[in-house]
Amino acid sequence: MFDHPPRILFLYGSLRERSYSRLLAEEAARIITELGAQVQFFDPRDLPIYGSVPIEHPKVQELRALSLWSEGQVWSSPEMHGQITGIMKNQLDWIPLEIGSVRPTQGRTLAIMQVSGGSQSFNALNTLRLLGRWLRMFTIPNQSSVAKAYNEFDEAGRMKDSSYRDRVVDVMEELYKFTVLLRPHTAYLTDRYSERKATH
Predict the structure, then answer these.
(1) Which residues are within 8 A (CB) of 148 and not within 5 positions of it... i.e. 6 or more apart?
(2) SS3 sequence, the chain?
(3) How far is CA 170 from each of CA 24, 104, 121, 134, rounded to the nearest angstrom?
(4) Cβ atoms within 10 Å of 10's Cβ, excluding its own
(5) What are the per-10-residue average pLDDT scores of the chain (200 residues)?
(6) Tens of pLDDT along 88-145?
(7) In degrees rounded to 5, what are phi and psi of residue 106?
(8) In this structure, which CATH number among 3.40.50.360, 3.40.50.11090, 3.40.50.2300, 3.30.450.40 belongs to the domain 7-199?
(9) Which among 160, 177, 173, 179 is positioned nearest to 23, based on CA atoms?
């Protein structure tokens, strides 16, 4: 049906051994893979603090290459003190608006998800949506917030059947559709006068 499967990059915001933001991302990746997408994960371990090393650092280059590879992205963060984690923000800080004449995020689709240990919240999602706008991404309307995440995954790390999982399926379906629908039009939609003027 398509020239190639939609290429989706997953970023998550925790280094814990049983990281619920990672488990949520892995569940979402299984769902969108079943829909026909190709997925890649970036492991944030060993990514230095932004600005502490040259951009030639292997982990920085790996992250930027994956962002360029992607057509869409999924960001999954815990909520910590009413915000996204530093692990999550550090990854996004390393992805610039442009690398030379190449823009590694502009025009890509984005789905956002969060987990929390308490009641349902949307603070991390609001920040992720703001960051998606600043990185000039098409953030889809739907989103996922999983409250009391420790109750929502089994021992094997699979998400239990629930309304929370149903929402994750909805979000992945929507991301898949938006990515495919926008694919032929991305260059036109992101063609800006100010950028043409700067180029010429």
Answers:
(1) 116, 117, 118, 119
(2) CCCCCCEEEEEECCCCCCCHHHHHHHHHHHHHHHHCCEEEECCCCCCCCCCCCCCCCHHHHHHHHHHHHCCEEEEEEECECCECCHHHHHHHHCCCCCECCECCCCCCEEEEEEECCCCCCCHHHHHHHHHHHHCCCEECCCCEEECCHHHCECCCCCECCCHHHHHHHHHHHHHHHHHHHHHHHHHHHCCCHHHHHHHC
(3) 14, 26, 19, 25
(4) 23
(5) 86 94 98 98 97 96 96 96 95 88 86 92 94 96 96 95 97 98 90 79
(6) 999 999 998 887 667 879 999 999 999 998 888 899 999 999 999 999 999 999 999 9
(7) -60, 130
(8) 3.40.50.360
(9) 160
Q: Which token pair is 142?
A: 């739907």
CA–CA separation, 171 vs 194, rounded Å? 33
| Residues in the chain, total | 200
Output the pLDDT for position 155.
95
* pTM of full prediction above 0.90: yes
Name every residue whose Cβ is closer than 8 Å to that of residue 78 and which is 6 or more positions away in sequence. Answer: 13, 14, 19, 20, 21, 84, 85, 114, 115, 116, 117, 124
For tokens 């360029």, what's the residue? 68
Burial class (CB in 10 A: 0-12, 13-18, 19+), 147: middle
